[in-house]
Structures are given as C-alpha cells and as structure tokens.
Amino acid sequence: MVKDFGAYADKEVVREPLNKGELSGLSFAVKDVFAIKGHRSTAGNPDWLKTHPEAKETAPTISRLLNSGARLEGTTITDELMYSLNGENFHYGTPINPKDPKRIPGGSSCGSAVAVAAGLTDFAIGTDTGGSIRIPSSYCGIYGIRPTHGFVNIGGVIPLAKSFDTVGWMARDAQTLWKVGNVLIEEEKETAPFTRIIMAEDAWELIEPNAKKALLAELKNWETSSFTHSQEVLADEGLAEWAETFRMLQGREIWEEHGEWIEQCKPSFGPGIAERFQWASTLAEVDIKPYLEKRRMIQEKMEKLLKNDGILIIPTSPGKAPLLNLSVEELELRRSRTFQLCCIAGLTGLPQVNIPLAEVDGVPVGVSMIAGKRQDKRLLQLAASFEANKK
Predict the structure, then answer these.
(1) Are 19 and 156 within one domain?
(2) β-pairing verdict for 166-171 and 71-76
C-alpha cells in the first residue's frame, strides 16, 4: 500500500508554526484550494495549475492556525474544482480510504480526510459546498464539521459556489475538532444548553437498512433526561425537491464563477466532472428564480424548527462508502440520495458535524448533528461530550 495513502498533492509544502498557542504540537494538512504564499494550487486539475499564478499571500484561515501553534504538513488532493463527492481524481489519482482500500474516500476534500484517517496529520482543513467535508468524514470514519455559512473566514480559497462555500475541518477525535474550532470560530453569544433532539424521519428513509440499524442502535445511548426527543418530517414535498433546489442554485453559481475560464482555456475534465460543468453551462438566471424563493422558505422552516436549543439528527450519507471504479451512472444514483441529505445544511447555511458512530461489516458509517446558525462551538462541545461519555 502507498505509504502516504495517496493523500497528498504536494507533501513538500511545509510551514512552521508562527507562534506558540492552543494548537501547539498539532500538525495539519490543507486541501489544495487554499492560498499558501509561494505555492500554486492545482484545484485538482492540471489545466488550472497551468493557468494560475502562485499565491502572493497565505489564506487567513491557514495563517490563523499557524499563529495558534499548528504545523502545516502538505497540501492534499481534491476532486476537480471541488465539483464532486467521490474523491476519485482522473488526473492525480484517488486517495486510499484507510478504513477499506476497496472503497472510495469521498470528495472533494478526499485527501484531507485520508490524511486524518490514516494518522498522517492530527487534523486537516478542507472546504464544504455540497458535502465535501461531511461525506469523506463519514466514509473514512472521522469527525468533520461544515460550519455556519460565513462564520469562518474563506478568503484566499478558490470558490465553487459562494453562497454555499464553507471552510471546514476534520479530526480523528471530537476534542481536537473542538480545539480547532475554538481557534477558527468567532465567539458565540448563546451559551444555554441544547434541550431538544429531533430525528428527521424523511432523512432516515434514505439510508441503507443495515447502516440504519447500526446507527440507531448506537443512538439509543443518547436518550438521556437532558433532552426531549421528537420526530419530524422536514420536507412535506420530499427532500428530493430540496436537493433539486440546491443543485440548480449551485449549478448556476458555479458557471458564473468558472464559466469564463472554462470557455477560454478549454480544460480537460475527467468523467462525470465534464458532464456536470456542461450541464451547469445551460442554466440561465431566469431558470433559478423560483429556487431562490424556495431556499428562503426552507431556511425559515429550519430556523423555526431548531431555534437555539434544537439538534437535528440525520444520517450523514446513505450508507458506507461505495466501491471503487463504479460506473458514472451508478455513482450519480448514489449522488442523488447523498444530496438529499447534504442539502439540508447546504440550503440553510446551518452547522453540521459528522460523528463516526458505527460500522457495517467493519466499514464506518456516520451520523450528523445539525444546529441553528452560529451554534457551532456548542455543537462541537456536544460532540466532544458524547465522545467522552462513550469512552
């Protein structure tokens, strides 16, 4: 097996800590979409690398981690222009899932997830637009957070769809995930405890039966007197409609962001990615207007449901990681179900934490907690308390 599990885009990009701090002694890797002074990011595509200069400044998020004592150890492979949830890069190879080498690691923050799961670094930074922290975290059996949209500085990061893009991070334990969050997240005003756990019935209908059984068995340990428990149907019209709303809005933003470069440079894209960009190019402003209103209604509904004291529990993905080298058609079918789960936090901008709660045939499956906006630190603390209680 490859010693570094194929996680790295450039292992030689090393930056020493700038100060001693809360993260002293910890190492991290970063998805190859962040600006690092003197480095040229690939964004997972050789033509992007050829047509873009090296960074003149380092992204604020990376600087903040270095100033807090962490050591940067390499950039990691990403899916092409972050437009996938699989982690199979046609040009640079597929990082090896340490939990099951026969399966994909999940994307697009695939290399970051693998670096953490393989124990190559203590934590890793990535981005999450449509699920790119949450899905590889679930597939690789680690903790990961997509924070409240706009809560963590995303300057110096190659964008995909700006109204959805977030900087996220992953770790093998919830305590480290919280420590990184304590550095990256601004102070929160709300300190009252969460009191309600809500199970999203329609989300749980999307998961494979064996994974559902394994997760629900573990979740029984969360049934304490500290929380009231209830079940809710999130989308009366179906989560597939929520996913379509996300897909349309994201697709239009992606083409607005990268269409000019694609038309001018005519980059070579791998299977699945090329077709996705081609589809995005067909979307017009008039096509997405109804979806903007739909997103606003979804946001209002979720804010009323969660308020400041509610936690929504959903499966992170439809089950364990798919096998390598499935056809584009098979992966697209899986992608549609995955999007129905990921779009909940994506459309609403809410924070979501993946917890590696169970295994099916030795392969990890994750469960997620979603909270109200700007409840990120409290959410991370809750994950850490569940982890401590499990021990």
Answers:
(1) yes
(2) unpaired
Range of the domain at 259: 196-390
Asked if 134 and 210 sit in the same domain, the reply is no
| 80 & 229 share domain | no
Q: Is 24 a catalytic residue?
A: no
* pLDDT at 108 exceeding the cut of 60: yes
Boundary residue ending a domain (156, 184, 212) = 184
Given 41, 63, 132, 368, the catalytic residue? 132
Convert 288-304 to b/e letters by CB count within 10 Å (16 or more is b): beebeebbeebeeebee
Residue 35 sits in a domain whose CATH number is 3.90.1300.10
**Residue 249 corresponds to which amino acid?**
L
Counted domains in the chain: 2
Confidence bin at 31 (pLDDT 50/70/90): very high
Residues 6 or more apart whose Cβ sits within 8 Å of residue 207: 215, 315, 317, 318, 319
Residue pLDDT, tens place only, 311-327: 999 999 999 999 998 88
Candidate list 63, 68, 84, 108, residue with the active-site label = 108
Same domain flag for 87 and 208: no
Mean pLDDT across the chain: 95
Would residue 132 show up in a list of annotated catalytic residues for this protein? yes
Examine the domain organization and report whether 212 and 141 are in the same domain.
no
pTM greater than 0.90 (yes/no): yes
Cis peptide before 132 (omega within 30 of 0): no
Final residue in a domain of this structure, among 184, 218, 250: 184
**HSE of 196, CA atoms in CB hemisphere, 13 A:** 15
Active site annotation includes 109? no
